[in-house]
Structure formats: structure tokens, C-alpha cells
Amino acid sequence: MRYLPKSPAEREQMLAAIGAGAMDDLFSVIPAEYRLTRDLDIPRQQAESEIIQYFKAAGAQNATDVANFLGAGAYRHYRPVIIDSLVQRGEFLTSYTPYQAEITQGTLQAIFEFQTMIAELTGMDVANASMYDGSTGAAEAVLMAMRVTGRHSAVVARTLHPEYREVLATYLRYREMPVAEVGYDARTGRLDLAALEAAVTDETAAVLVQSPNFFGVIEDIPAIAEIAHKKGALLIVSIAEAVSLGVVRPPVEADIVSMEAQSFGVALSYGGPFCGVIAAKEQYLRQMPGRLAGQTVDKDGNRGFVLTLSTREQHIRREKATSNICTNQALVALMATIFLTVYGKEGMRELAEHNLAKAEYAAKTLSAQPGTTLRFTGAPRFHEFVLETQEAPAALSKRLLEEKIVGGLELSRWYPELGNATLWCATEVTTRAQIEAAAKVLAAGLVEA
């Protein structure tokens, strides 16, 4: 009854009310040859106690003592326990779209606080209530730039997260909007500015770059902005690692900032749900996708919150909607809001500095091993770095796993020219002992060879 709440008698009553003699009558419009007449080949139903035992046993197989050096757009950071304590309150956990402002003041205020902190962090004038994730946010930002400029092409850095580029390609596949990719400098790992200048034309709506980029390198945003603006294009800066804004100068020269806020207290959760953001200069406000919450006063002068902008197809004519993003990540954005409130400005800076220090120690220690080289040393980076090894990445990863270490991400899948290069990440939760253990495995590989 817990999972099938209608009793047999109630079902018969419902069938009689609609003039059906049996449940099968509901499917009579489906031709007989397409109907399944046998039982499904699935395990028997289980009692609730059996289900709980099953998942406890499955959960026990998870490795909880593994060192992890993966990053690449999904980052391990410490989550203050207060986050789950608050977001699991019924007022937040069960709330949905704040259409009725008079009864959803708490949700609207949380969204407003989120927008305010994101705008401060990114150096933009306004931010929306959140997007699905960083990849769709970047794609929506390109469409936004095309609406603003009236142009229909884009230039994208090859140092943008490869999966973000794949999402963008999916968005633009049937829109006849050409995208040109610009490569990177082999020494610094930064965007090739000469190639960028050649690629941007009077028909370019947007230049989309990531900083820190996929290699962990911080791009020269002022120089990129100058090239884009000279041709009348908008500059979009994608940020996959939000914690970097604790020490990295915000991309104030950008017109639009797209960001993945997962690092702000959102668990990795096997890849989602995450929390995307779009922030922009004020003049582009009405072309922003999603929704914005605003602050106002009621007739008695008391502070209140409302949905200021909802240019979605649920609210306006479909052809005038700015996006088909149908909702926002309100609960996940609330996690980010709590995280930022707990840490504050000084805490965010200290957190970012901690990440920098761990990554610098990891890069120095790992690259000091025989047969290992640190790539892209000619530019500043945040907490990710690229190592090139004499040993093939697949073989190295296997040996690392034997020691309960998840090593770097193999880059040849997207960058075949990088050969045996892997992308490594170290955050505040990475320990010195884990770094030194990984270094021992690297060193042992050359000895065995």
C-alpha cells in the first residue's frame, strides 16, 4: 500500500466510473501486436526491509579511503555540515517556483542573496537565479550574446572545458550558427591571442573563454576583451572552479560571466545536480535567461522580494522567450548561498589560498619524480596542473588505483597532441601524505620500467 496506494476495491470503483471493465481496457487503443502480454523478466518484489539491506550492502562497497586528484570541472571541497541542516528543512526542500511572492518570501530572499553574492564575486552588475550547470550556462550565454548583438557566429577557446564545447555544439547544431575554435600557446597553455585576433570578425557575436581554463591556467582576460570588443563582439568568461574567485581577479572586462557554482558547498553526487550561473553587465539584463528576484517595499514600507524578471516561455510568448531553461536550481543555489555566507569574504580568500598552496606543493612534488614533467609553466594557474609522464596514463592510473589513489585525467581524449599528459587537481581536502604517496607511485613506475 505504501507504493500502490489504491486498494483493489478503489481501482474497480475508478474503472466503473469511466466505463472500463478491466485495467487492460485502458490500453485497448494500442494494437495487440505491440502489447506486452507476459510478465516482465525482473526480480521479485522486495519488502522495505530487504530494500534497505540491499542498498546498505551496495553502499558498503564504496571506497571511502581513496585519495582523489581528479578535477576537470567537478571539485572536492569541504562542505560545512550546516548546509544540509538548513536545506533539508521542509520550507526549502519542498518549495518549488516562487510564483506567489506573498507566500514565498523566504525562497525569494534566498535567491536574491544568491544573486547579490554572485554579482559581487564575478564583478558583474546582475546575476540570475541560477542555471542547470556550468555547461548549459555557457551555451545559454552564447545565445544571449547572439540576441544582444544580432550576429550569428561565435569564437570559442579550445581551452574551454571539452564537455562545455560539446554542449554548445548540441545547442547550435540546428541553428546554423558557426563556431570557430582557437588553439592555445604550447608553452603557457593560454589562449593564442594572435589566432584569436585572426578568428574574430565583424560577424562574431561572442568570444567564449574559460579562466582558469581546462588546464588550470589563468587567461589574460583584459587582452582577450580588447580583441573581442574591437570587433564589436561580446566577451563571455566561463568559470568552472568558483573557488578561484577567492584570489583570482574577477573578469570585470567581460560582458557576460557563466559559472559553475558546484564548489560552493555542492556535493559531487556522481555528477549532479550542480548549479550554473549567468551574470552580466546591466545593459544586457533583459536578454538574460532564467529568472531574477528583486527587492522592493510593500504599501507599508516593509522590505519584500518579488520575481523581477521571468522571460521564460512559461511567462511570455514562446518566440520572445530568452531561454527554454524551464526552471532554476533553487535548492542547490541555496547550498551555495549558505556556503558563501559561512565563509564570508576573508574565509573565501583563505580557502582559495589553501587550494593554491596544496596545488603548488603537489605540482612541485609530483613533477620532481624521474620521467615526469610539469607542462604550461609560463603562466599563473590555480589548483590544477598538467603533468607529462614517460609512462602511458592508462598504465599509471592502474598502478595508482592499486594504491587507492585516483590519478589525473588523461588529456589525449580531447588533446591528442599532448600525448601522455594528465590533468591533476589538489584542493584543501588533499593531504600532504596523499601527495607524497602519489609521488612514490610515479617514481616506482620508472624504476620498474
Written description of the protein model:
There is one protein chain. This protein has helices spanning 8-17, 48-59, 82-87, 90-93, 105-122, 134-149, 162-172, 193-199, 221-230, 330-367, 393-402, 432-448; strands at residues 67-68, 126-127, 154-157, 179-182, 206-210, 234-239, 256-260, 276-280, 291-297, 303-310, 372-375, 384-389, 405-406, 409-410, 421-425. Helix content is 35%, strand content 15%. Helix 6 (134-149) crosses helix 7 and helix 10 packs across helix 12. The protein folds into two domains: 67-77 and 346-448, Aspartate Aminotransferase, domain 1 (Alpha-Beta Complex); 82-340, Type I PLP-dependent aspartate aminotransferase-like (Major domain) (Aspartate Aminotransferase, domain 2, 3-Layer(aba) Sandwich), CATH 3.40.640.10. It contains twelve helices and 15 strands. The protein has a seven-stranded mixed beta sheet, sandwiched between helices.
